[in-house]
Structure prediction request, 344 residues.
Amino acid sequence: MIVWLNGTFGAGKTTTAHELLDLLPGSTLYDPELLGSGLRLMLPAKRFEEIDDYQDLPSWRRMVVDTAAALLTEVPGPLVTPMTLLRQEYRDEIFGSLAARRIPVRHVLLHAEETILRERIAGRTEPQGDPEADASLRRWCLEHLGPYTGALDWIRDDAHVVDTSRLTPRQTAERVAEAVRTGAGACDIVQTPEPTAETLAAGVLLFDDQDRVLLVDPTYKPGWEFPGGVVEPGEPPVHAGIREVAEELGIQLSRAPRLLVVDWEAPKPPGFGGLRLLFDGGTLPDERIRSLLLPGAELRDWRFATEAEAETMLPPVRWNRLRWALRARERGCPLHLEAGVPVG
Prediction:
């Protein structure tokens, strides 16, 4: 298990984490910031000029999960992880990948009033005692108060909140330990096993009366997606699409959806690629749209999007697949793609 202590700078994550080690038997401190420091030494400096934060590195997010899994083969756990995590799509990627490895997460937000945070930041210093470094650190911490405030809504919805404004680090740790013992902050993410070979997946495009396409927002991976999922061994792909629509949205399709696109996705580590099929599930009447149901552990939200809106919401590979699927729907003829490019 991982106890993820979230919160901005000055909330008391590091001091609470050290106190928590005394209260959770077998616990080990796991600081992903060390992975960022290591990447800074190993990657070309030019790569860091392209990003704002090492969390923007896909390699860092993957290493957070891989290192946690490796550590848990060496220690009994839990891992206590003091790490600010403000971008929801990064939370989805990291926590979803941990769930795929059957590693449960307790997400705890350490929060303090802004005046308290500013006071703590003002008194923060670097161990070297360098006044210039101290001033730089304080500026950096203050600059991150805005993004933290902007992320509070989704973090509060996702995490168990402990207000540290008037608590000592020990008192904060005691409250976190009690929350962990009672199961507070548990992230009930669907546990989709990570693929170990090429996979066959079936997605279904559903439309409203304005010809906008239905997109869903998974809790377990970043970015918007089409309803659908991996085809089970021995399962016909069209049946998989029908099953996934029923499981994800509570909609029973009245007819078999029509094939729009077959796309061969090239393997790209850590992914294995495989075949991706998109079907046309037709237009949903208003009463069906009003009855849409979302499984909280799997999907966070849904919305209908125009083609232009979908381009800003979907990752490039999915957007390209959707673009060709819409052309196939207009022409009434399915398309065969290889790595997103029509064949023939």
